[in-house]
Amino acid sequence: MDFSTNFSTDIHMASVHQRPKSPYWHASYLGPDGRWILRSTKQENRQSALAVALEYERAAKLARRGELIEAQAREVLKDIMKRADIGETLQGVSIKSHFDGWLETKRTRKSKSTGERYGVAVDDFLKTLGKRATRPLTSLTVADVQRFLDHRTAKKLSPATLILDVKIIGGALNAARRQGLIPTNPAEAVDLPEAKGMERGTFTPAEVKMLVDTAKGEWKLLIILAYFTGARLSDCCRMQWDDIGDVDQQSALLLHLATYAPLACVAHSGNKSLHGWFYVFLDPEEKVQRFMEYALSLGADPATWTPCQLVRIPDGLRDNGNRQTVFFFNPNYQNRI
Questions:
Q1: Could you tell me if 147 and 185 lie in one domain?
Q2: Which of 76, 198, 276, 334 is in the most buried spot, having the most CB atoms within 10 Å?
Q3: Cα–Cα–Cα angle for 76, 82, 85, rounded to 5 degrees
Q4: Do 84 and 102 meet the contact criterion of CB atoms below 8 Å apart?
Q5: Tens digit of pLDDT for each residue in 46-59?
Q6: Cα dihedral sign for 283, 285, 286, 287?
Q7: Beta 325-329 vs 15-18: how paired, if at all?
Q8: pTM, 2 dp
């Protein structure tokens, strides 16, 4: 609590006093408006209290002369904490150092693509700040975040991208708020653009066939997987046989392998998997070996990739009572398998 008197004096020396029934010493000093102020130092030791009182007085003198800028105010607070031997220091985190540290943490905990996306937003945000990026984190304002949003908007980015940009910056500032580095998050006061939904069309089977016929190498498999599973390109690239959960997804891989060797028959195991027979009888052994190795690289069961092996009996019953059924049969190879 502050106490002030209405008289003025030419004696501008801070002093400390102990009030009745209070364990703390109070500082008496001339305030910025020329009035004497009595303020608690929150110190029980007289020497520590006097050190705090002298810093109160120094800040008041700077304020009277109109010279108490943010940097000087922070220095005064640091000196108060140091002289009072509080055991803590005033944290002076810059905007850039906080965002760099936050981004590094995200990159170690998120996927590579997510880390790269966060990096795009953070790098652009720091660029819009220019030299101000080295200023204290507490100096950030709503106008700074709005300027970043305007900068990204000028690049003709979609509303969804702009919203994600601001959320990334807001996430870094929320982390700072939880750490006690800033009192509020300026990104929360920025008006986000309205996201407009966009419905995308799908390829017809004829269009997919044209894509597969035109594609080369592993692109054929990626197109087939994406069409039958609806998975993203990055997921298709990492997909293994163990990830293939349903019949449509397994069919996509078998169809892809059929571009390397004729598919003669496909039978469902009666449980989870499909089994395919490929006709490679007249192919050179070296070519057959490469085909089998490629199938195994996609995650196929190595135990069943042998030149000739009875694996499933079409229309047969398993021990659990499930029937094994034929899903596909090529009559051109009925006498060859």
A1: yes
A2: 276
A3: 140
A4: no
A5: 888 888 888 778 77
A6: positive
A7: unpaired
A8: 0.44
For residue 26, the one-letter residue type is H
Residues 210 and 329 in one domain: yes
Domain match, 233 and 289 both: yes
What six digits make up the tokens of 324? Answer: 């094994």
Start-to-end C-alpha separation, the chain: 95
Q: Is 300 helix (H, G, I), strand (E, B) or coil?
A: coil
Number of domains within the chain: 3
The answer to the question of residue 22 being in a domain is yes
Among residues 68, 4, 81, which one has the least CA distance to residue 41? 81
Asked which of 134, 163, 189 is the last residue of a domain, the reply is: 189
Residue 8: give the domain boundaries: 2-83
Structural domain ending residue among the three candidates 163, 189, 215:
189
Count CB neighbours of 330 within 10 A.
16
Instruction: Write down how long the chain is.
Output: 337
